[in-house]
Amino acid sequence: MASADTATCLSRPEGDVFERMSMQETHSLPTESQNKKGLETETARLARLIDTYTPHDGIFRQRIPGLTLVRFSSTSTGSETFYTPSFGIVAQGAISFTVGQEVYVSAKPRIFMLPVALPLTLRILQGSPSEPFLKAGVSLDPKRIGELALKMFPRGLPPIRQRSAGYGFEADLDFVSAMIRLIDYLGNPGDAEWLAPLAMDELLIRLLRSPIGVYVAEMGFADSGVQRVSRAIEWLRRNFTEAMKVEELAGLVHMSVSRFREHFKAVTAMSPLQYQKTLRLQEARRLMAVSHLDAAAACQLVGYASASQFSRDYSRFFGSPPGRDIARLRQQEPFEE
Known about the structure:
Blueprint: H1 4-11, H2 15-28, H3 32-52, E1 58-61, E2 67-72, E3 79-83, E4 86-92, E5 94-99, E6 102-107, E7 110-114, E8 118-126, E9 133-139, H4 142-152, E10 167-170, H5 173-184, H6 189-194, H7 196-208, H8 213-218, H9 225-239, H10 246-252, H11 257-268, H12 272-290, H13 295-301, H14 307-318, H15 322-331
Antiparallel strand pairs: 1-2, 2-9, 3-8, 4-7, 4-9, 5-6, 5-8, 7-10
Helix pairs in contact: 3-5, 4-7, 5-7, 12-13
């Protein structure tokens, strides 16, 4: 049996040896400049990968479910679209999202996350033929988030003090590398089928461990405020042409009217009525631009009772009356998805 002195020697190296080991370990850690250089290198690699799978300007849904790659080679004054819950990494260029009266800007290598489905306005702030705007986006699955969040927050979520329509933070080297791995799997059908789901889980776990993790985790709990608002949004999307009372919508998701208004405004930057109006105006614009309906027919189809009220709302929202706005849109080259 070893003596106490011998046991001490075996369990702890001598002081000078311990100090030398600590110094060696410190020197082996990457410096801040090395981390920054590594992040720049990996972000450039991510941009090249996105460029490979986006042959021209547009939004490209990939064979890996939930993965979308985006490319635009010019700046834009703004285009109205609809985003489902998702997050994305900007690999090159910069973009802004306008939700209600709130504006969010995202540039490389920033991550931006939307917890609920939102009608919004996108503007490409930096993008050119030689250096196009490039982004990788991933849809968020509340069910899978809930499964992972239960493991990562076994004692429940900490208090959420302030919600927002969107959240962002700077991507680190590990996050960018994880996105690269996911996109790399596009090159092999077997990898896309079997390994991509693991890469998706890694991205979700890193998102849950990020500075905005609690807001992501909340999406996975059915009784959370954000999920109740999501259910209200689903109803609005299916029934936006119908008359709507906020009291009935609040009752549908089992919230008091005051609490429902507060939560809805926090996560959408709009009131329920403003959200409904935005859906109506965007659909009317689509009907006029794509189906070649006139303003009178379009406004009736989306639920407006007054053509003059429709014209006023449309002009405020899109910046010009329906006829002039649609004429301008038809002169622009359509983006292919």
